[in-house]
Amino acid sequence: MRGLPSPCCSALHAALGALSLFIGTELTSRSAHAEKTSVRSAPDAAADGVYDRFDGDLDLGLALGAEFGSAGQVAPALRASAHYFSIAGVYLAGRINASDQSARSLFGLGVDLRPLFVPRWAKGYETGPGLLDLTLDSLSLSLGAFWAQRPPETPAPNRGFDAQLGCGIPLSATAAGPWLEARGVLRYPDHASREEAVILALSWHGFVTTPFSRGSGL
Known about the structure:
Blueprint (H helix, E strand, L loop, with lengths): L6 H30 L5 H5 L11 E12 L4 E11 L3 E8 L9 E9 L3 H6 L7 H8 L2 E10 L9 E12 L6 E13 L5 E14 L2 H6 L2
Antiparallel strand pairs: 1-2, 1-8, 2-3, 3-4, 4-5, 5-6, 6-7, 7-8
């Protein structure tokens, strides 16, 4: 029993394995289709809808920007993320030095989903320009929790639920490299009124290959 994986780990590995198998099958199918349709022009052939996102199975991102709160406060914001095949992943986010009208500092974590990339790519719905495809694929939904440090005299709770909707523009029209990102944020502190904010940030994304991907044969 000691060496057996937990049910959660087994389910996670099964999900990742199924996703890797699906992507591998689609890659083989798309490659075979590309060989049969060699009459396409070179620019069209280059627009495969992936834009180097399969250079590694893990998309790592780091963003630095500013958070603009509904009460008028502005604070530095930081966000780090990791996505499996640019589809689903986790994020860590933070904010510091906000005004006394809100939490002076804040830390959050949760899951982030990008639902458009794989369905669009699998169906071959490429528009051609990488800038547009990547911008559409970057639409993401984040759900998580946050913990805040508030002034001692403020009775508001220091934790709650966090929901975000974001998108980005690749400044180099490639998946790896600099991005300009925007996120709308809704925070629901426990037993308190909703808080709203907008985050604008400059981010950098890169791709790495994990042992799981090498073992799956992708």
